[in-house]
Amino acid sequence: MNISRITLVTPPSSCKAIENALSRNPDLTSLPLPRPDVLAPESLSQNTGTAEILRLPEVQAAIDGHFLILPCDLLSELAGESLLETWMVHAAGLVGSAALSGGLGVWFPTKGEHAVKGEETSFLMTAQLLHARFPPSSKSLRSDLSKLVYSTSTDTLGDVVESKKAFPIRHGLLRKHGRIRMLTTTRDAHVYLFPYWIIDFINRNPTFDSISEDVVGWWAKATWQDGLVPKLGLDHILNPSSEINGSKDAENTTHANANIEEDLDLASMSTTHVSHLLTPPTTPSSSTQNQTKSPPQTVPPFLAYVHPSSTPLIRRIDTPALLLHASLYIASLDPSSSPLAHPHKIHPTCSIAPRTTVSQDVLVGSNTTVSQHAIIKNSVIGANCVIGVGARLTKCVLMDEVEVGEKTVLTGVVVGARARVRKDCKLGEGCEVQPGFVVEEGTEGKGEKFMVFTGLEDDDEVEGDDVGEAVETEGMEVDQIS
User: Across the strands, what pairs with 186?
Assistant: First the structure.
């Protein structure tokens, strides 16, 4: 089993830019096969829920088997093959229907060496797996694997605790799992290995909006909470024969019946250990009882891989602070120490003037010009940038086509693409410059955001009843921008 097809799902507004990057960017055109396909459903927007994306007909048409979901802002040094192998060994169904397969998700710690203040966290509860008969290898992820029994965001957890003045735990969870581990400083990496039947699960529950909180959260609770299996439709999904026998329309069982593998006699193939189990004789009374009452449906587990430490790195890069931290980390890597490291820290096409200082932990993109007397330390500079005479950059990230004026001092600043920072500016830690923004000469600031506000117009002549209407309209536009 391997990855046979890669599909990038994006809103139509971003489709052209992604296609251009895939066809022109050397780092993307050199990727190994299979080449990714770009899918841009017309109804998809930036505000569409992650579970709702999987309901789109175009997305469902592209899925024809077990699948892996990755976010667009993931940064990972962990090899994807190890996750795939872990899922195949511990969660993928090998005998009979594909509906027996479980799932796998990834969480990583937010504390430690790569901690960033204000990073989003998740709340999850896990239970131990059964002890393996043989100890896992040193490269195996088995020791950090557990069963997920509860998952939500810490914001939702805070709302529950605030409304109920406590965190309620069901007795059914304690009866099912005697020892439970609660984690509050980890974050969901949004990396999921799903079986094919999860598509039916999402279709049968139209109120699901989020994969992490709704799909994964309810799946985890269904493994131990009584009554959830029929409410969520899992009894028909995991046992499609019951729906086929009881309904004329068996169309909904298409996903559960897809990719059914042939029965394998694994015991005869094993070379290490074979167990011969004797089937106890059944009495007429017991066989009659089995015909009238079926056993409770067993829900496949959803496994949680909780990354144990900050090395190798796994991170979601969805805020400027995380972008700054991750970029500086990559700049500090030795080319032979990590798959994220760049082979050339300073691109061969760069123009570095004499009498400049560029430290070893700096990345400089192609066709960038650094003027004399400039000092650059622990920073990342994009392509086609211009650094003025005597400028000082420390712990900064500059996107493509940025211009920094003479004697400008930037410390801990993130500058967007095509922005201009005029001469003699002094911007300290926490400052962010929006793409295309021009910071005027001599500007000083710390922890400020330099942004372009569009749609705001100064009406010098507003009379009578129009005053309230004008103020209300401007307020709505500002809310949209923020």
Answer: 109, 122
For tokens 């009452």, what's the residue?
Answer: 293
Sequence-distant (≥ 6) Cβ neighbours of residue 308 within 8 angstroms = 109, 144
Pairs from 253-259 (Cβ < 8 Å, separation ≥ 24): 253/200, 255/196, 255/197, 255/199, 255/200, 256/97, 256/98, 256/99, 256/196, 256/197, 256/200, 257/97, 258/64, 258/65, 258/98, 258/196, 259/64, 259/65, 259/66, 259/98, 259/196
Determine if residue 240 is left, alpha or beta; phi over 0 gives left, psi from -120 to 50 gives alpha, anything else beta.
alpha
The answer on pLDDT for 49 being more than 80 is yes
**Could you read off the pLDDT of 345-385 as tens digits, one per residue?**
999 999 999 999 999 999 999 999 999 999 999 999 999 99
Strand partners, 398: 381, 415
Strand partners, 351: 369
pLDDT digits 0-9 by tens, 158-168: 898 998 888 88
- What are residue 103's DSSP bridge partners? 302
Q: Is the pTM of this model over 0.85?
A: no
Give residue-wise pLDDT tens across range 71-116.
Answer: 999 999 888 888 888 888 888 765 444 447 899 999 999 988 888 8
Question: Which amino acid is it at 220?
Answer: A
Structure tokens at 287: 């066989």
Distance CA 142, CA 43 (A): 40
Predicted confidence at residue 12, as pLDDT, reads 93
State the Cα–Cα distance between residues 380 and 365, nearest whole angstrom.
8
What are the residues facing 395 on neighbouring strands?
Answer: none
CB proximity list for 406: less than 8 A, separation 6 or greater: 371, 388, 389, 390, 391, 423, 424
Residue 241: how many CB atoms within 10 A of its CB? 13
Confidence band of 134 (pLDDT split at 50, 70, 90): low
In a 3-state reduction of DSSP, which class is residue 375?
Answer: strand
**Which of helix, strand or coil describes residue 158?**
helix
Distance between CA atoms of 228 and 307, rounded to whole angstroms?
29
Please give the Cα distance from 66 to 468 (Å, whole number).
Answer: 56
